[in-house]
Amino acid sequence: MDHNPNDDRQAADERRSLLGLAAMALIIGAATGCVGAIFRLLLAHADRLRDAMIAWAHGHAIWGFLTVLGACGVATLVAAWMVRQFSPHASGSGIPHVEAVLREEIPPAPFRLVPVKFFGGILALGSGLALGREGPTVQMGAGIAVFAARVCRLCWADSRVLLAAGAGLATAFNAPIAGLVFVLEELVQKFEHRVAIAALAALATAIPVARLLLGDAPDFHIGPLSYPSAESAPLFLTLGGIAGLLAVAYNRTLLATIAVRDRFGGLPIELRAGLIGASVGMLAWFAPELVGGGDQITQRALIGHESVGILGGAFLIRFGLGALSYAAGTPGGLFAPLLVLGAQSGLLFGAACRLAFPALSIQPEAFALVGMAALFTGVVRAPVTGIVLVAEMTGNVTMLLPMLGACFMAMLLPTLLGNAPIYDSLREHTLRLERQIRQR
């Protein structure tokens, strides 16, 4: 067989292209790690500022109450105004937008999306909305990658690789392996060598840069857990089934809340967001520990420091608050609120099982941990991401087998019931928004 020199040249070009992408991914990863870490630090500062304001306001009766309502309402209103005025695609999680761009359903957004997501996210999450930091971080990382690709005038194929690799989930949760799995399982939904290499390169710089600012400890702390016995396996499968049904209810509630919001299209977006922010401020006045992203709620569930009566009420409040917060149309993600609900529902189920089966020596905290992965899987349908994310965030691998069984049930039931993954449904909403923007 004759040797074709063109094949050698093509192979050499592909190697140079891959090497260039890897080098750019290293730079993009460092930038994403820095932006994501600063975003997370400022969110923590905003939470402390909100708590301090509420503590001060309780000493000033009605004026303090009005101050809390006004501050939360105005912060949410301004965040919604920034989205409408400068970058409509900065609304919500941002992950559906990234997925739509990767599928070439819509073009990438201009770079101004990044500052809108950054400052709008601080205002929205700082006001107490039950939203997470991961969606904004993913979208900002993708935005930084798109900007770098445009500056270097890369073709779409290379730009797409960098866009996927730049997604900053790992920075948001200090979970590098989950960040890689998320890119392949949820964003790209297949294994591509070029994407995997670029994502690994981005993680190689994003995580060290972020840990310089945030530290390298797991996000959540949990006590020692015993390896589950064979007798407890059906209980974890049952928990997975419950999580699957809760996931269907959560997805439908979230989409129904967005539909109700859209029916009030005659009201300005800012007014709708301000009213939602004020209602969250009212809740913050009476129960400041129930608002915000909810990391502290998840932590309490993981160490079992919640009474069953209080836990049930808190779960119902957070369930509705998450959907209401997302309907505000401000920047904010779904992951952290889902982990809260998963931990709460798992702890409730574990406490009930301990009462019903005292001979099994059940640890309710173990069910809280498994519930986090199970509910995430039921809502998002990314089981490997959910399992790895929870394991990395808690530094615990004892419950991997129960998580596998629970996630199996949590993914099976919504699929049998015909309930679409939440990001598929939200991506359809993003596409409708894109059509409306083009018609203006």
Short description:
This protein has 440 residues and is mostly helical. The protein is 75% helix and 0% strand.
Keywords:
mainly alpha, 440 residues
Q: Based on Cα principal axes, name the global outline.
A: globular
Order of helices and strands: HHHHHHHHHHHHHHHHHH
The biggest beta sheet, please?
A: none
Name the helicity range.
over 70%
Mean pLDDT: 91
Q: How many β strands by DSSP? A: 0
* Proportion of residues in extended strands: under 5%
Secondary structure: elements and pairs:
Blueprint: H1 5-57, H2 61-86, H3 95-102, H4 113-126, H5 134-151, H6 156-166, H7 169-173, H8 176-188, H9 193-214, H10 233-263, H11 269-286, H12 295-302, H13 308-326, H14 335-356, H15 364-380, H16 383-394, H17 400-416, H18 422-439
Helix pairs in contact: 1-2, 1-4, 1-5, 1-6, 1-9, 2-4, 2-11, 3-18, 4-5, 5-6, 6-9, 8-9, 8-16, 10-13, 10-15, 10-17, 12-14, 13-14, 14-15, 15-16, 15-17, 16-17
Give a written overview of the molecule.
Helix 1 (5-57) packs parallel to helix 6 (156-166), helix 10 (233-263) crosses helix 17 and helix 16 runs antiparallel to helix 17. Helix content is 75%, strand content 0%. It contains 18 helices and no strands. It has 440 residues and is mostly helical. The mean pLDDT is 91. The chain has helices spanning 5-57, 61-86, 95-102, 113-126, 134-151, 156-166, 169-173, 176-188, 193-214, 233-263, 269-286, 295-302, 308-326, 335-356, 364-380, 383-394, 400-416, 422-439. The N and C termini lie far apart (59 Å).
